[in-house]
Design the sequence.
């Protein structure tokens, strides 16, 4: 199993669910972050937050409650960067990358540092379709699309990374995630005990 596993595919196909199911209790040993939806009392989407795997740290980076979407790139240059720089975690969860954080130099530097350290990573990479939707919804520029294309290409061409395209509730994605977890989350933990 390759050191880095990223699932990609359409919104709602079960990428994050596969990773969460595969990690189980090991989720709290990981560094990195989850991207969580924020919902109101009626279940409507009101924004997104960046959250540490153990749930102890979180910060909103996108808010839909006003007249237009409000972006908080400080969530990535602050909390996101800190979560990526944690050298005590045996692996990183990156759920998800490929969004507006690509325009945050401090976050991208921390991501490159994590890759250079060789730390195992499991996560979700935003596909080109959802990336294009972000441009429309948030008014992002072509600079963003170019950054997203560069990151996808980098991951696709990296010999230590598997970028797997998922279908709807893809059993193979769950199998790959479980294999990754067995090798990099559980076996590493058992060796250190």
Sequence:
């Amino acid at each position: 199993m390759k050191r880095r596993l990223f699932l990609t595919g359409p919104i709602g196909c079960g990428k994050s669910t596969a990773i969460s199911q595969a990690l189980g209790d090991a989720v709290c040993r990981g560094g990195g972050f989850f991207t969580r939806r924020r919902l109101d009392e009626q279940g409507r989407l009101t924004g997104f937050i960046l959250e540490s795997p153990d749930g102890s740290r979180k910060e909103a980076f996108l808010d839909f409650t006003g007249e237009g979407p409000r972006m908080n790139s400080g969530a990535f240059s602050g909390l996101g960067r800190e979560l990526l720089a944690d050298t005590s975690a045996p692996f990183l969860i990156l759920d998800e990358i490929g969004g507006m954080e690509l325009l945050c130099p401090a976050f991208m530097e921390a991501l490159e540092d994590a890759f250079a350290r060789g730390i195992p990573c499991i996560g979700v990479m935003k596909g080109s379709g959802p990336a294009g939707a972000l441009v429309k919804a948030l008014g992002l520029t072509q600079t963003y699309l170019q950054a997203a294309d560069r990151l996808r290409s980098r991951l696709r061409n990296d010999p230590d990374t598997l970028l797997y395209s998922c279908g709807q509730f893809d059993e193979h994605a769950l199998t790959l995630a479980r294999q990754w977890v067995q090798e990099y989350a559980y076996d590493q933990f058992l060796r250190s005990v």
About this structure: DSSP finds six helices and eight strands in the chain. The beta strands are 4-8, 31-39, 45-51, 58-63, 70-71, 92-97, 121-125, 161-165. Confidence is low (pLDDT under 50) at residues 189-193. The radius of gyration is 16 Å.
